[in-house]
Amino acid sequence: MSVERWDWSRRVFDHVDVHASDYAESVRFYETVLAPLGIPKLMEDEGRWTAFPNFDVANRQPPTQNLHLCFYTRSSEEVDAFHRAGVEAGFRSNGAPGFRDYDAGYYAAYLLDPDGNNIEALYRDVGNVGHGAGPTLT
Fold first, then answer.
1. Before 62, cis peptide (omega within 30)?
2. How far is Cα 86 from Cα 56, in angstroms, rounded to an integer?
3. Chain-centre distance for alpha carbon 63
4. Phi and psi of 64, rounded to 5°?
5. Do residues 137 and 129 lie in contact, with contact meaning Cβ atoms separated by under 8 Å?
6. pLDDT tens-digit readout, 26-42
7. Contact of 97 with 80, CB cutoff 8 Å
8. pLDDT category of residue 134 using cuts at 50, 70 and 90
9. Strand 92-99 vs strand 49-52: parallel, antiparallel, or unpaired?
10. Angle between helices 76-88 and 23-34 (to 10 degrees)
């Protein structure tokens, strides 16, 4: 299988759970930073877990740590809004919005969630292999 032949519209995981040391603060973080990306909170189970699309915050110990989680965005403006919302809400930046040296057109910003996990918002701009990706890359 090659990068060019992979079906990029295929979902590769069903959901990711993050265990939180401070459940309420973690839910506040993800609600705050995912809203500008159009990712809503879908449901909550009485303080045990909160569900976002394909992503859950769980009130469990030990907390998830040393995780890098990247959320897809549809524009560089969404990346900017993700970072701005987090910083304005008092969360820690781990990298301001901008193009990265990783690859052409890789526009990203990073925030640390309350447990120190590195949370990224990424837009694959013109020049990046993932820009405008459908089921196949061209």
1. yes
2. 18
3. 18
4. -70, 135
5. yes
6. 999 999 999 999 999 99
7. yes
8. low
9. unpaired
10. 150
Tell me the one-letter amino acid at 122: L
In the block, which residue shows the tokens 């993050």?
Answer: 18
Beta bridge partners of 71: 121
CA 118, CA 107: separation in Å to the nearest integer? Answer: 16
- Domains of the chain in sequence order: 16-124 (3.10.180.10)
pTM for the full predicted model: 0.90
Residue type, 36: P
- For 72-114, how does the pLDDT look when each residue is reduced to its tens digit (9 = 90+)? 999 999 999 999 999 999 999 999 999 999 888 899 999 999 9
Q: What is the pLDDT of residue 130?
A: 67
